[in-house]
Amino acid sequence: MANRVRLDQILESLEVTNTLEGLQEIIERVRDLFAIDHMMYHWVDSAGDHYYFGTYSQAWIDQYQDKNYVRVDPVIAGCFQRFHPVDWKRLDWSGKPARAFLDDALEHGVGNQGYSVPIRGPNGQFALFTTSHNCSDEAWEKFTEKRSRDLILMAHFFNRKALEFETERAPEQSRALSPREIDAMTLLAMGHSRAQVAETLEISEHTLRVYIESSRHKLGAQNTTHAIAQAMARGLIVV
């Protein structure tokens, strides 16, 4: 409960900050709250400019840029092809350049475990929200199972704020959810299964699917998890 209260307070701070320095301070607070080694947010705006903030060492950031690791980084390649969050263990590290990159990252304290959330925004914007840590596979699996929903939520909150730095971006067009769609998305966000949601709302699972697909379309979401994150980020549902 204490962690949820602190997370809500951090999200409130994120909502009102208007500087990159403020975003940096907030991502450090989130990292400390989750008790992991690193968090990093990196985005490419519609003009192709790169921005980032996070907790990797400056030595690693400089090394990454000097070596032009973006060309061989399996996280970048893997996430650019996906819409779902990616556990680094599921990426292809078999190539010699990828293994050399991984060895260098480990030497710079990045961590042997990672979880990245790819985000696509308007006009070609692409972003990654990444969490990394040094621990066993078992400990990492427990962490991601417990925190994946929070990590996806944080990713979209940070991305929503980052888009405000694109001064030429047209205002985002939001389409309101219907009361029934709000009910369905709220219950799903609370962790109920589709069968439980349908029973609570006294509708068929087919009708529930219609509500979910309609919500996803209105929110421009790739899947149900993304739709929940978007609805929460825009304040359309409160859990």
TrEMBL record:
InterPro entries noted in UniProt: Sig_transdc_resp-reg_C-effctor (IPR016032), TF_LuxR_autoind-bd_dom (IPR005143), TF_LuxR_autoind-bd_dom_sf (IPR036693), Tscrpt_reg_LuxR_C (IPR000792), WH-like_DNA-bd_sf (IPR036388)
Domain HTH luxR-type: residue ranges: 170-235
GO MF annotation, one: DNA binding
Keywords, ordered alphabetically: DNA-binding, Transcription, Transcription regulation
GO BP term, pick one: regulation of DNA-templated transcription
Protein name in UniProt: LuxR family transcriptional regulator
Pfam families on file: Autoind_bind (PF03472), GerE (PF00196)
Entry superkingdom: Bacteria
